[in-house]
Amino acid sequence: MTGELTVAIGGLGAIGGHLARALDAGVEGLRLVAVAARDPEKAQRSIEGFRAPPAIVSLPDLAEHADIVVEAAPAAVFEQIAEAAIARGRIFVPSSVGALLPRMHLVARARETGARIVVPTGALLGLDAVRAAAEGRVESVTIQTRKPPRGLEGAPYLIEHGINVLGITEPTIVFKGNAFDAAKGFPANVNVAAALALAGIGPERTMVEIWGDPTVTRNTHTIQVEAEAARLTMTIENVPSEENPRTGRITPLSILACLRGLTSTLKVGS
Ligand SMILES: NC(=O)C1=CN([C@@H]2O[C@H](COP(=O)(O)OP(=O)(O)OC[C@H]3O[C@@H](n4cnc5c(N)ncnc54)[C@H](OP(=O)(O)O)[C@@H]3O)[C@@H](O)[C@H]2O)C=CC1
Ligand SMILES: O=C([O-])CC(=O)C(=O)O
Questions:
Q1: At which positions is NAD(+) bound (predicted)?
Q2: Is 70's C-beta closer than 6 angstroms to any atom of ligand 1?
Q3: Could you name the CATH architecture of 5-122+250-261?
Q4: What is the pTM of this model?
Q5: Which end of the chain has fewer beta carbons closer than 10 Å to its terminal beta carbon, N or C?
């Protein structure tokens, strides 16, 4: 153990709610001290029965309370959480990773304030191997995402292009392009592509395919990396969470594992 770190969470939905409950149940070296959500009364109900109820605060105030600020809210409010956490020199752990891509100035700002931005693997897999490969020469990185159509509903790219995903009756490719454009067009759907881009060769060179696929029940991501040191092919099939079908159940678990890695004496994986 390297000492206790306090944690604040912005958002108490599929990710934040699960994470808050897990931290309150007890995780060595981590203590939940503050949460924020849109509706404070709903937030109060979410933390009812907690052993040590955290303070309910506003999004920017999370950073005043804790060493680690976890963002688990819609991409639209990402900046409110991120800017305050980084200005205050905290460890900032984003879930809405797609929202970080057009805001890379936050990394430069963190360098000035002493903050850290720790991107969890989230709903993806294998970012340790991608990072290792990217220490050498990488030819290409691609990710193919297949989701049940309702998991893509409402994405700005689909609305702009008049694509009705709910009408899809067979596997259909709805987007092909780089990770930067994917994150812009699907801000609530392809955080995994953004994390992959940051782990490897950047958002311009990381190529993304998004499929609406009525034959799958899980959010399925397949990564292919062609590098000098290795060829990687990896697939993860995520069970959608009950609270939000866009979000795989593994996501809060990955963030919890990431937070443990910030305090644990034994840490496995790069
Ligand atoms: N990195 C990854 O691998 C993954 C990332 N994600 C991303 O993580 C983020 C969170 O996902 P998820 O937990 O499923 O989302 P949910 O929709 O389940 O929960 C969102 C939470 O944010 C709160 N919220 C909404 N608007 C505001 C606001 N204006 N101010 C304060 N709080 C607000 C909601 O509060 P209330 O309940 O009061 O409305 C709710 O508690 C999303 O951006 C999602 O795309 C998702 C899956 C994987
Ligand atoms: O697979 C998931 O659960 C979520 C997802 O695609 C993402 O946010 O990128």
A1: 123, 191
A2: no
A3: 3-Layer(aba) Sandwich (3.40)
A4: 0.97
A5: N
